């Protein structure tokens, strides 16, 4: 298992060393939150394998499940929502979470996009 140091962890370490980040992240505009969600679905694939979150037989897109699992583990959380599929929980959480949590999740999504962008993994992406 790879060790992932998320934005929030790096920020906490920097604060302990009295380093101030050049960028200050106050509030993420709702339009940017929506755009990032749309880009994430386009890049990572639909949240369910069948592409239909309403279908009771649907299963998680494993990439969304992995993003949620890492986020939960790194933040010491048990869950971030009540939706059936991990991708729906992540996307719903992105709507109203704190700026720091949002940056952590976006970082994990970008990592997922990077992994799936590798030609070896293209066939695993759910269209």
Characterise this structure:
InterPro entries: AbiJ_NTD4. Pfam families: AbiJ_NTD4. Residues 6-111 form the HEPN AbiJ-N-terminal domain. This is HEPN AbiJ-N-terminal domain-containing protein. The protein is mostly helical and 127 residues long. The protein has one domain (29-124). The protein has helices at residues 7-16, 30-44, 62-75, 86-96, 99-117. Helix 2 (30-44) packs parallel to helix 5 and helix 3 (62-75) packs antiparallel against helix 5 (99-117). The chain is globular and about 45 Å long.
Question: What's the overall geometry?
Answer: globular
Estimate nothing, just give the exact number of structural domains.
1
Query: How many DSSP E strands?
Result: 0
How many distinct helices? 5
- Approximately how much helix is present in the residues? 40-55%
Largest sheet: none
Low-confidence stretches: none
Strand content: under 5%
Gyration radius from CA atoms, angstroms: 15 Å
Class by helix and strand content? mainly alpha
What are the salient characteristics of this protein?
single chain; 127 residues; mainly alpha; 5 helices; 0% strand
Topology record:
Blueprint: H1 7-16, H2 30-44, H3 62-75, H4 86-96, H5 99-117
Quick structural overview:
With 127 residues, this protein is mainly α. The protein contains 5 helices and no strands.
């Amino acid at each position: 298992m790879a060790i992932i140091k998320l934005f929030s962890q790096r920020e906490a370490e920097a604060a302990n060393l009295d380093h101030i980040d050049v960028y200050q992240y106050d509030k993420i505009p709702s339009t940017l939150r929506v755009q990032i969600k749309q880009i994430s679905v386009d890049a990572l694939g639909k949240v369910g394998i069948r592409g239909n979150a309403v279908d009771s037989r649907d299963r998680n897109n494993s990439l969304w499940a992995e993003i949620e699992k890492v986020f939960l583990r790194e933040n010491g959380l048990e869950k971030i929502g009540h939706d059936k599929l991990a991708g729906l929980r992540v996307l719903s959480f992105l709507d109203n979470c704190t700026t720091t949590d949002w940056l952590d999740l976006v970082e994990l999504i970008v990592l997922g996009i990077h992994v799936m962008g590798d030609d070896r993994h293209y066939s695993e992406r759910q269209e």
